[in-house]
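It is worth pausing here to work through a concrete case rather than discussing structure prediction in the abstract. The textbook approach is simple: state the sequence, then state the predicted structure, then interpret. We follow exactly that order.
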Amino acid sequence: MFIDPIQLMQFGEGFGTTQKVNSEVGQGANTLVGQTVFADVFQNAINDVITTEDEYQKAKYMLATGQTDDAHTEPIAGAKAQLSVDLLVQLRNKALEAYNEIMRINL
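Step two, the predicted structure:
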């Protein structure tokens, strides 16, 4: 059985913006590209929270009304919703820490 070796992850990879970032890096990447990538990541996290919360509410309704045969769907959906909220909170905290660190820089 062949196991693929670990590869270095390029900035923006996995977020659907690799092409834009890599094309800009070759031309001396300006700060607007970094802001766009962060905005996309943050917006994706917000959308994920909304989606997982909707799925959790639907699973709770289906379980409460007896319209589902599997009782494990509701706790799994709840765990996914909680995990997506935790990720969003951590993204926010890291962004605020970075902002505060930048504001502490003396020019």
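Step three, interpretation. The helical segments are 18-25, 31-64, 73-103. Residues 33-106 form a domain with the Helix Hairpins fold (CATH 1.10.287).
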